[in-house]
Automatic annotation (TrEMBL), chain B:
Coiled coil: none annotated. Keywords: Cytoplasmic vesicle, Endoplasmic reticulum, ER-Golgi transport, Membrane, Protein transport, Receptor, Transmembrane, Transmembrane helix, Transport. It is a multi-pass membrane protein. One of its GO terms (biological process) is vesicle-mediated transport. Belongs to the ERD2 family. GO terms for cellular component: COPI-coated vesicle membrane; endoplasmic reticulum membrane. The chain crosses the membrane at residues 62-80, 119-139, 151-172, 178-199. Pfam families: ER_lumen_recept. The keyword Transmembrane applies. It is found in: Cytoplasmic vesicle, COPI-coated vesicle membrane; Endoplasmic reticulum membrane. This is ER lumen protein-retaining receptor. The keyword Coiled coil does not apply. It comes from the Eukaryota.
């Protein structure tokens, strides 16, 4: 998984 | 999850619920830009499509559902339930001037050229400018109800707190999402003028009114 993506944020 | 991210999320939640309660209690959406609210509903819809594909945590899923639900409820109240009080005459910002360029940019500048990723990028870009019709409306009428300014302050504060969260995450996790960071900076900068007025006027007990 790409670490540099704010997908765990809202 | 750090304290800035959490307080950012809570500030966002306070803003959304405050607006919903204000409309519900006063049975009126006067002074609220329906166009901004439709764009926020669009932002949440396009960003949270991963609710079905990518489970992160119960906190994450619950917050997404609350944001989505409240946002649709707000749009419903403005355009259906309390439609008579909607100030459409003053809500004249052309939403297509934001949605079309932002859509184009999401196609051109994204992490990955896939439908979900483009929609996520679109939501990040659109969120950064979605408040403009609301700010434009206040400039046009020259004033805002105090409760509306509390809403705007909490909404602006949320992204500012996220900026600190991203600095934190960069130092402690080596994490950075350039798209989110640049859009988050733009979003926060748009609120600066309002923050100044809020602190100098509203916090001193005065109503927010602009000189004619």
């Amino acid at each position: 998984k790409n670490k540099n993506k704010a997908k765990d944020e809202l | 999850m750090n304290v800035f991210r959490l307080t950012g999320d809570l500030s966002h939640l306070v803003a959304i619920i405050l607006l919903l309660l204000k409309i519900w209690k006063t049975r009126s959406c006067a002074g609220i830009s329906g166009k901004s609210q439709v764009m926020f509903a669009l932002v949440f819809t396009t960003r949270y499509l991963d609710l079905f594909t990518n489970f992160i945590s119960p906190y994450n899923s619950v917050m997404k559902v609350i944001y989505l639900g409240c946002s649709y409820a707000t749009v419903y109240m403005i355009y259906m339930k309390f439609k008579a009080s909607y100030d459409g005459n003053h809500d004249t910002f052309r939403a297509e001037f934001l949605i079309i360029p932002v859509g184009g940019l999401a196609f051109l500048v994204n992490h990955e050229f896939t439908p979900l990723e483009i929609l996520w990028t679109f939501s990040i870009y659109l969120e950064s400018v979605a408040i403009l019709p609301q700010l434009f409306m206040i400039t046009k009428t020259g004033e805002a109800e105090t409760i509306t300014t509390h809403y705007l302050f909490a909404l602006g504060l949320y992204r500012a707190l996220y900026l600190i969260n991203w600095i934190w995450r960069y130092y402690f996790e080596g994490f950075f999402d350039l798209i989110a960071i640049v859009a988050g900076c733009v979003q926060t900068i748009l609120y600066c003028d309002f923050f100044y007025l809020y602190i100098t006027k509203v916090l001193h007990g005065k109503k927010l009114s602009l000189p004619a």
